[in-house]
Amino acid sequence: MTPSHGSESSLAISAQNLTKTFGTGEDRVNAVDGVSFDVEPGTVVGLLGPNGAGKTTTIKMLLGLVTPTAGSVQVAGQDVAANRYDLYNHVGAMLEGARNVYWRLTVRENLEFFAQLCGHTLTDARGRHHRLMEQFGLAERADEPVSSLSRDMKQRVSLICTLARRTEVIVLDEPTLGLDLESSIELRREIRRLAERDAMTVLLSSHDMDLVEAICDRVIVMHEGAVIADDRVDNLIDLFEVQSYRVVLEPPFPDQLRAELDGTYETHNWTQSSDHVQFDVALSSGSEFYDLISALQAADVTLRSARSLGSDLGDVFLELTDRSNPIGSTPEGR
Ligand SMILES: Nc1ncnc2c1ncn2[C@@H]1O[C@H](COP(=O)(O)OP(=O)(O)OP(=O)(O)O)[C@@H](O)[C@H]1O
């Protein structure tokens, strides 16, 4: 079944000024504070943010599981506040730690149950179910009750039940947490396939930067309840030009120099031997690189090599959340 996109709006997701406050008085928490974003159909969007940034609360508001204090949200053309039950025909979700499958049913029965719930005929769905069970290493356990499977396998069942429904929008909260490497790779492949071939929209929250960088068209970064960046992954990496270098030095290496470098730069992975001293350093501009070289020269230390490790989404994420720069303002030091 090719998803039929909602009629009221051509956007897959439209969140306007979403706000959620928990508690009152001193216990009041502004979990989500005026978040707005639109997502076009067929886009894979990563929702990133440190713990407590408001990702899960945002996701739950998109799914109608938490009622916003203010703001509105449409998903797959459905106004979430008005059409909560209709919404579930258009949206599939796997929330972190959620047991959204029936443990007494077998893997195959779960797939068939959820397929029938959203109106798929079993003759159409069986081929797809078989392929997903093969892909996620569950084919040999297809006729066993979910209760007899390992925790990791239960998660895979929950994941394929969500993917197999082929709803217009899929929401996944920390989908790779607890998955083995092979299943993680299959998940990446399947998500890209669903987006590219079937124009399905996927919103996923994850701390797994490699996953997000590999499969997301766009990332929304949240911090303290607000959106602090919303752009294509490659644009964010270009914008910050955070570069990590591996620096190798010849001994002797004065003791106080390490403390000086640690105080001035973001350094990691120090190793020291009789033959060399090595560390990694993240630099946000070319001039910082030359400052570092000058500091080494001033301390009379010989540089053996400085190799760029490239910059990735992980570097950008740290940069954004450490400094909490709204995109559009110039990052510090540039
Ligand atoms: N039901 C609740 N009652 C009170 N406070 C809550 C509730 N749910 C979330 N919060 C608070 O709201 C803030 C945002 O939480 P949320 O779970 O949305 O963040 P998150 O970005 O998903 O974090 P994590 O990555 O740790 O899951 C946190 O300070 C959290 O403690």
Automatic annotation (TrEMBL):
Q: Which InterPro entries does the entry mention?
A: AAA+_ATPase, ABC_transporter-like_ATP-bd, ABC_transporter_ATP-binding, P-loop_NTPase
Residue ranges of domain ABC transporter in the record: 13-249
> What superkingdom does the record give?
Archaea
Q: Does the keyword Transport apply?
A: yes
Q: Would the keyword Signal turn up in this protein's UniProt record?
A: no
- SUPFAM superfamilies given in the database record: P-loop containing nucleoside triphosphate hydrolases
| Family statement drawn from the similarity comment of this UniProt entry | Belongs to the ABC transporter superfamily.
Name it.
Answer: ABC transporter ATP-binding protein
Biological source species: Salinigranum rubrum
Q: What is the lineage of its organism?
A: Archaea, Methanobacteriati, Methanobacteriota, Stenosarchaea group, Halobacteria
